[in-house]
Specification:
four-stranded antiparallel sheet, globular, TIM Barrel, nine-stranded parallel sheet
Length: 289
């Protein structure tokens, strides 16, 4: 299992690799949502070249919803990025998978749709696009996750297993629209949270940017209890970066790389849980815990 880290500052590339990251992810200022370091096309190409010279693997994550009006610009971006030979293009919208296939580079595609990849049928259609890498949904239990991996040996499967995980993504700018409707001043740099009516003690962070709005889980996710199983089965393990200090992020990478996570949990345990890996939820919308 290889560790995939998100780059927040170009000056930290060497440090991320030294801590144990195998692959570095860079994000676009045009086609990446909630990006921690949104880069222009030219800067993405420069980042690819810099990382490959280390040498290290490098991915570009393009995870917005693609509209028809985006296609020309997206194709130009992909065409020029692929010339720099990144090791992968992580994408949310299948439109990008189709384009990669038509460009003759389906092997670069890593399908990361959020909650969609939960069973063999959700992976089967990727064969038509000749895409063999995908990220499994983090909303399924360990038993289902293990079965999915073992029953799909032709795929190189990954998981977003640590960090602030988005539950919902909309192309709409929900925060600014809400403030406009209420006649309130919207501060784009402020931190916003939302509480569900039936779970009023839990607060869900929101981030709005040029691509829309993302809503995140109330607590960050860790996989320390099940990481040994993941190491034996997963191709890659993504560590997310949003709503995390640099120190916390570096310590997380080190913990997974070394296997020594006790200090991390002593310091940050109250901010984390282990999701539904061990406890499946049966709650329906509107039901309280």
């Amino acid at each position: 299992m290889e560790i995939v880290a998100i780059v927040k500052n170009l000056s930290e590339i060497d440090e991320l690799l030294a801590l144990g990251a195998n692959t570095l992810v860079f994000e676009s200022d045009r086609f990446s949502r909630s990006a921690v370091l949104p880069l222009s096309k030219d800067k993405l190409i420069s980042a690819i070249n810099t990382t490959k010279a280390k040498p290290a693997k490098v991915y570009i994550r393009l995870n917005t919803i693609i509209k028809e009006s985006d296609l020309d610009e997206l194709k130009v971006l992909l065409d020029e990025i692929l010339e720099a030979e990144p090791d992968g293009i992580v994408f949310h919208d299948l439109t990008i998978g189709v384009i990669l296939n038509k460009m003759g580079h389906p092997e670069k595609g890593i399908y990361q749709p959020g909650t969609f990849n939960t069973h063999k049928h959700s992976l089967a259609f990727l064969t038509n696009l000749k895409i063999e890498r995908a990220t499994i949904s983090k909303e399924i239990t360990m038993d289902k996750l293990v079965n999915l991996i073992k029953n799909n040996p032709r795929f190189k499967l990954s998981l977003i297993g640590h960090g602030s995980i988005d539950m919902f993504y909309s192309n709409r700018k929900m925060l600014s629209l809400y403030h406009e409707y209420k006649g309130l001043a919207y501060e784009s740099d402020a931190k916003y949270q939302i509480a569900e009516k039936s779970r009023h003690t839990e607060f869900y962070p929101l981030i709005e940017d040029q691509s829309g709005t993302s809503i995140f889980r109330p607590k960050k996710l860790h996989s320390f209890k099940v990481i040994d199983t993941f190491k034996a089965l997963l191709f890659e393990f993504f560590i997310e970066r949003n709503q995390m200090t640099d120190t916390e992020y570096y310590q997380a990478i080190k913990a997974y790389a070394s296997g020594d996570y006790f200090d991390f949990l002593r310091q940050y345990n109250d901010e984390y849980d282990d999701g539904v890996f061990t406890d499946e939820t049966f709650l329906r919308k509107g039901e309280a815990k």
